[in-house]
Write a structure and sequence with these properties.
Order of helices and strands: EEHEHEEEEEEHEH
Number of helices: 4
Helix content: 10-25%
Radius of gyration: 19 Å
Strand order of the largest sheet: 9-3-10
Largest sheet: 3 strands, antiparallel
Oligomer: single chain
Structural class: alpha+beta
Number of strands: 10
């Protein structure tokens, strides 16, 4: 049905047209092989302006646990022709970052603001646009190993997810669909205690 106040669709089946409209760019999904330091640098970039309404915030999968503070310097860039050419301030907002792959053990990228293994490598799936530096992702990183996934795009990924949820009996046409773990997203005050200000940051 249509919401009379906004003329947007509310409830009912998700049509192919809905998927195409929501994800009209339909960008390819790629796998990026990066160091822990490069990925943390990207998350710092995504936290620019967090809490200020500027629109920056990382969109991540269920296997990512992120704790950050806005009471610390944010990452700043040197931008030329719309592209990040260099990082002026690395940022120090990420306090903890742990990624747990499906069926795997937790990978600790950041603990208490420090990277235990900055040169270790990790593979993640993301949009080709972001892997190429779009929206400030992978700032200052060159020579990323990027592999395309044949026939996988934003639209096919969403359709595959919905089909898998439906087959598992979890989707139920979206009725009452909620996050399986509401505690994943919560607001807990995190001050800047113990933050080490990187060189070049105010």
């Amino acid at each position: 049905r249509l919401d009379p106040s906004s003329y947007t669709k509310r409830g009912g089946s998700i049509r192919l047209l809905d998927v195409q409209t929501a994800l009209r760019f339909n960008g390819p999904i790629v796998v990026v092989d990066a160091t822990h330091a490069a990925l943390v640098r990207t998350v710092e970039s995504a936290l620019r302006g967090a809490g200020s309404g500027k629109g920056h915030f990382p969109q991540v999968s269920a296997g990512v646990a992120l704790r950050y503070t806005t009471d610390a310097p944010e990452q700043t860039h040197v931008v030329e022709a719309g592209k990040v050419k260099a990082i002026r301030c690395m940022g120090a907002r990420v306090r903890d970052l742990v990624i747990t792959p499906a069926g795997g053990a937790p990978i600790v990228l950041v603990k208490d603001g420090a990277m235990p293994t900055p040169n270790a490598r990790i593979a993640i799936a993301t949009l080709e646009y972001l892997a190429g530096g779009g929206d400030g992702w992978f700032p200052g990183v060159t020579g990323l190993a990027v592999s395309k996934i044949p026939d996988v795009t934003e639209q096919t990924a969403l359709r595959g997810f919905l089909a898998a949820e439906e087959q598992a009996g979890r989707w139920q046409r979206g009725a009452g669909y909620v996050d399986e773990d509401p505690a994943r997203a919560r607001v807990v005050p995190v001050d800047g205690t113990g933050v080490v200000v990187p060189p070049g940051c105010p």
